[in-house]
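Two entries, shown back to back:
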Amino acid sequence: MTTDPTGVVTLTSRNPADPADVLLSIPAPGAFAVADAVERARTAQTAWLRGGAAARSAALGAVASAFDAASAELADLAVREVGKPVAEARAEVARTVAIWRYYAQAPYEPTGTVHETAAGPGLLLTRRRPHGVAGLITPWNFPFAIPSWKAAPALAVGNSVVLKPAPEATACALRLAEIVEKALPEGVFTLLPGGATEGGALVSAADVVSFTGSTFVGQAVAARATARGIPVQAEMGGLNAAIVLPDADIERAAADITAALAGYAGQKCTATSRVIAVGAALDPLREALTEALRAVPVGDPADPATVCGPLIDERARDRVGEAWQGLPVLAGGTMPAGPGWYAAPTLVEKAAADHRLLREEVFGPIAALLSADDLAEAVRITNSVPYGLVTSVHTADLDTALHGLDALDTGMIRINAPSSGVDFHLPFGGAKESSHGPREQGRAALEFYTSSRTYTLSPARTT
């Protein structure tokens, strides 16, 4: 984003694999445009809700079909605009189709319950109703899936939606909006590209807000929405640990950790950034993980063989390089030559407890190898950071997995699986500074985008 001397803000999207490749350059709409869009959405929401379950279900199903038909084009666009390796881009588009199909059935879900009165005739009812206009603020790293897993449930239960995407994913967002808007009545879904000005205006005008992004911005969003008294959820950072016990399949654990560390250059809130080897697991894990990371294909995200593509911009690439300075590097620690913003998947060790890698989310392909004498110490290390999104645990002992990990204060625990990767039909979210407010995805999202009302129905006459 740039601002000219007259105050006009321009959004420019560049290919992170080739920064000279500019996808688009457009003016930001400004705060007044956001306020106007919210008012139009509020008007459209009434008819959208009254149209009934069948109409909403059919519309969301049409969106799914349109995404499916455009899947190859959308994957290519994600590769070009946000540098997502093509295999992951195709998987994201497939997940996006599945998300819309899943929520296309949600309009038929029960919206309340019936209860007996405590005494006398009548009925007591609870019923969930939409809030009105859902304001969605989304990041660049999943440019189709994250807007979809927010918008689809909001629309399914009868809200209208105004979406403010990250500037780095503006081209993807415009294409997403083109698909969604064709299937919905005018005003029910509106895209407003922009930056902090537009995001702040949306939080100030919407009836419910869902945010995914950095912790700093997410906390500001949550504070502003809470001050207005509207529902808000904020999914923020992660500093996720992988705990490897001595009885684990070390080669498999190394492969899972490598995928979660290096895939999409570590640009996921669920990426692994701390690896905690318990006891005798340390030496074999160090060797296996070092070897696996050195073998990760780094390069052009359009190449199907690529696992680790570019960082989103130069600042992100430099932040990764700064993080490994002064530490013993086991793998990586280099920035491959080329026009794009690349950093090799990196594993370091001997990081002090106050090192930034162990306190802050770097958001890149880098992790620190740590050791623990036993599982209890590994859990203490895992819990020692301000974040609590996801922990992966690698062990052959299911008793340990089921009963020995209750002390973890992370929102998700994945056993013998990478920390990255989520199931869209289950609740998603973390603890501490990773999340604020109710969970998103699955049925939890349907509850977040509605409020509960209690009705007392008493007879007009008694006999």
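entry 2 starts here
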Amino acid sequence: MLHILYFVHDLADPAVRRRVLMLQAGGALVTLAGFRRDDNVLAAINGVEPIELGRTKDAQFAQRVTAVAKSALKLRNALRSVARPDVIIGRNLEMLALANRARSVFGGDMPVVYECLDIHRLLLGDGMLGGALRSAERHFGAQAALLITSSPAFVERYFRPRSGLHLPIMLLENKVLAIEAATTNNIVSAARPPIAGKPWKIGWFGALRCRKSLALLDDFSRRMEGRFEIVLRGRPARSEFDDFDSFVRDAPFMQFAGAYKNPEDLSAIYGEVQFSWAIDFFEEGLNSSWLLPNRLYEGGLYGAVPIAMDGTETGRFLASRKIGLALDKADASHLVALFDGMDEQCYLAAFDAVAAQDRKQWMIDRADCQGLVQRLAALTRANEQIAEIQALPQLHRNRGGLQ
């Protein structure tokens, strides 16, 4: 069984839970190590007791770097009870640095994989800090065996033209993990227009970190005078909002329904809404324009019509399939215009277009999980072959000395 040591930036991140479950479903044994930012019990993984390396704070880069540096000095002791892994994965740049350190702790010859699912704005700066971070990325990624990322735009807009990394790339989109019958059998297959007198509902689910989206949706719902209701679920990045709870409490047509378990709760929560907000302005023009978010695939699989921003990678994804709704300008007036003529006939046409898509483009099944683990296992075989080739000159020299 392939043993994977997985370093993560946030042990309470539901996306980390999903990746571990995927690796396990593919047949791997996973040892999880990383930092904690909160105590999200819904992200706990049965059978996995993580190695906690410390606490970090959201949106405090300097504090995170300090915490990572301190943990690197203590990493040998933290990993003393861990069996030698076959592959080490670092999820983002800080964790890639720890993955390299762990490789040296274990002997320095197992493959390291760089998993990068967001391009942080600091990496894209033209100043000294941006240059220093890209240099660090090149340094820590120089000996990596594979880069895993989640959007073609990350490759086209950053990794190939700017990063300086020259690695094999595996595109692993943020699709819904659907390995259990309970997940696949409960996929919403019927349209759900609101009953007479009830509002249409737009769901914004997942990592809630975008102040602009929150303000825009509030303004829009007020202008629509209750014809539309905004339902928020997930993990608010409270460092990005002045007072998230007060804002939502004062918004007459908006509600925060708390955290949820992914993928177990997806059918239920998407089944309550007609539309899915797949827009993010958190790093507008950069990462937010390039990513393909989890909610895009979740909404697609569970029958919520996605709303995307025109000109983004998400918008291009939907346009190429002729599905979803595109907002051409990020203000409430244009969002009102987009939905002003919404009626049951328009909604049913949009729903049918989404429902007609092949489910495989939205979901990851057990075979996909096995394919990922097989790809990682192939890295270890390649390493062994390289080691054998490198050993040949020494073997010939030894034989020559014996003759």
